[in-house]
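In this supplementary section we document a worked example of the pipeline. Step one takes a protein sequence of length 353 as its only input; no multiple sequence alignment statistics are reported here. Step two produces a three-dimensional model, which step three serialises into structure tokens for compact storage. The input and output of this example are shown verbatim.
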Amino acid sequence: MATQPNTPRRSSRLIILVVVGIAVIVVISSFALLLLNQQNDTSVSRYAADPDSAVHILANGDIYLKEIDSSTLPIARNGSTYNLVNNCIREFIIEKSNIVLDGNGYSIDFANGGSNYQKIDLSSVTNVTIKNVVVEPYYTSIRFNHTSNSTVQNCTAEYILFLNSQNNLVTNTLGSQFTFQESSNNTVANCTADSFEFEKSNNNLVFSNSNSTVFVGTDLSFGDSSNNLFFGNTFGKCLEWISMSGTSTGNVLVANNIDTGRMQIQCSLTGNNTFYHNNFYNFDWNRTATTNLANTWSVNGQGNYWSNYMGTDKNGDGIGDTPYVIDSKNADNYPLMRPVNVQQENCLKLGRS
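The serialised model returned by step three reads:
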């Protein structure tokens, strides 16, 4: 006799599968609806993962602070200008273009002992000015994040980061480290800084900055970065003055004061960069280096001043009679007998204003 099918058991399995399928559809639909609501809700910042302490100046100009009445913050808005009226223990994320954040000498710091976020983050904006702010040192102080044509001036900010940003200016700011990542045509001028780091960043201008302290690190670092100009800066004592890697060519250093403090300098150079009219004081270059590529050390028959150059100038033309040997592939063939007066150098001659 043929075995009869177990109809009740099959029916039970079918019911279970239907119920599970419905549950999955409900979950997916709910998640999709949540995402759609978040995209359509302009009152919610797109920085949902940021710490609750972050203050957002939204694209519509509103001040947003999660779960807290923003009117309690020490910020007064006057049209397109946002003024601090007291110290603020909050991170700032700026999402609105064409505004000014004036710190009026007050400070910005992290809430709740700190976080991994920037204290002031200019995010995908243009024509924003940050001025007169003291950003307490910890993590990144100010970040230009996909930002253009914006300015930081008269601030204190230990670490300033340019990330995929162009045509920005930092001036008259007390800082420590400036980092450029995939950023071009930015300017840092009249600041205090220990180091400049470039990664895939081109055509930036760094001029009239100073550093007179001992820095345990590298003053200048280039990774696949070209055509950057350094003019009229003072670089202080460091363990490594300059480091280059990858395709870093066409960088120009002119009219800079470089004092290494008689420390043995470990430097790495890629080729086809230009150094001239610089003053190298107490310079103890590693002349045995063999990995450096050839660079240009003079322009129009004038090189650099080296305080430890021992050559003579028999005809009195201000140019040494013998080259200053840097390493096996680099030499300054026209060493200057006297320091360059950097105040008389003209950056306009280099095609930069």
